[in-house]
Amino acid sequence: MPQPIIIAENISKRFMVGAARPYDTLRDRLSAGLGNSWRRLFGGRHGADASTKEVEFWALRDVSFEIKQGDVVGIIGRNGAGKSTLLKILSRITDPTSGRIRLRGRVASLLEVGTGFHPELTGRENIYLNGAILGMPRLEIRRKFDEIVEFAEIGPFLDTPVKHYSSGMYVRLAFAVAAHLEPEVLIVDEVLAVGDIAFQKKCLGKMQAVSTGEGRTVLFVSHNIDAVRRLCHTAIMLAGGRVCAMDSATHVINQYLQQSLTSEPARVPVPDARLAERAYTISVVLESLDGRPRSVVAVGEPWRVRIGFRVCRPYARFVVGLGLMSADGISAQTAWSEPAGLEPGEHEVTFEQLTSLQAGTYSLIVGLSDSDLSLQQIEASRMDISGDNPHGYFPMTSGAGIVLNSMRVTLKRT
Asked: Would you tell me which of 159, 195, 235, 305 could form a disulfide with 199, CB atoms 3.0–4.6 Å apart?
């Protein structure tokens, strides 16, 4: 029977929000000294802001599990559930506040674009550097070298410094190195979403091969629920920094989707004095076309956003806009209502999605304007689009640019 290769025992991780950072380097000390001098010259407080209070934030609380050799485990959960923090602890990038991790063998991690690469070194040099970091003998790296280059598809740029690589080239090389240098544990975060559809499928196939054919352990975090379902035998669901489910991937995914049928409350700020005299957003609801609140939708599934707003003076050309921004800060889609004359009162505009977007996490950006004059812009909510659809639109992979005004928009007074 396979032995546990990863054992997590009551792992907790605490961050102090608002706490002053320790002076880690000479640059930090100089920056802090200059900041204090600036505050003394212009009448500010000496040293740290006296009004700043340290607030505890627990990213993980008492997380325990065992993973056996050869297991392929998906880690899922909403944004802020603690997934990335857990992976950083497993990768030994950060230490837990309490608890213990026991790992057997080499661990290769792919957590964010460019991790472990030196920007001034070439692709060739970074392959050897990463191999050395993983503890691989030079002869073993040389034996795998051609296979890595072929998988990464960067042959013509092999002797180019990686600082000139695109994000997609970074990820291709990083994954190829991590997967081919024979780690006992391969940890992959959402970073694969940067690659194009063909490369994502290639990576999924490689992860299946290293787990089933070579008996290695894979931990995989993704918002692409279908990819987790196909690749993983087991899944762990995190919520609020705690393990709320660990079972077969199918069972845990179904539980996650069921819990995600209701939207998180939209973050609609209290209007300031300026907006209270002009116009401001009062509600944002993401829902299915039959009116059920949602926070997770499948690729290609119709959905809509209802935005309620209050107008406090007459406007001749009032416009409401909705934008979708990817988790990497790239605009994926934007739409706006036709300019309309509005009287004071409460109104609602509905944006119905007509375009099939790629799986991922998106921020919903709401904007109000008087013709060309912007009145308000807020990040109201986030949504997850799950599934695996090669025809789904995503600007980083398609290169087609932002999708403009592709929603059905209706405006009414409430």
From this structure: 195
| Residue ranges, the chain, pLDDT below 70 | 1-2, 17-55, 111-116, 134, 190-197, 260-267, 327-330, 387-405
- How many C-beta atoms lie closer than 10 Å to residue 154's C-beta? 22
DSSP secondary structure code for residue 304 in this structure: E
Contact 324, 333 (CB under 8 A): yes
The total number of structural domains in the chain stands at 1
What's residue 222's pLDDT? 79
Here the CATH number for the domain that contains residue 399 is 2.70.50.60
What is the rounded distance in angstroms from the CA atom of residue 188 to the CA atom of residue 239?
19
Beta bridge partners of 71: none
Q: What is the pLDDT, as a whole number, of residue 166?
A: 81
349: how many CB neighbours lie within 10 A of its CB?
A: 23
126 domain-assigned: no
Domain that residue 338 falls in: 273-413
Instruction: Please indicate, yes or no, whether the overall pTM of this predicted structure exceeds 0.90.
Output: no
Residue 130 within any structural domain of the chain: no
Angle at 190 between CA 186 and CA 191, to 5 degrees: 85
Please report how many Cα atoms fall inside a 13 Å half-sphere around the Cα of residue 105, on the Cβ side: 21
The predicted pLDDT at position 196 comes to 62
Q: Does residue 248 belong to any structural domain of this protein?
A: no
pLDDT at 23: 44
Taking the CA atoms of the chain, what radius of gyration do you get in angstroms? 24
Contact between residue 360 and residue 368 where contact means Cβ atoms under 8 Å apart: no
* Beta-bridge partners for 374: 369
Residue 13 lies in a domain: no
C-alpha count within 13 angstroms, C-beta hemisphere, residue 309: 31
Q: Which helix or strand (DSSP H or E) is residue 178 part of?
A: helix 167-180
Neighbours of 161 (CB within 10 A): 16
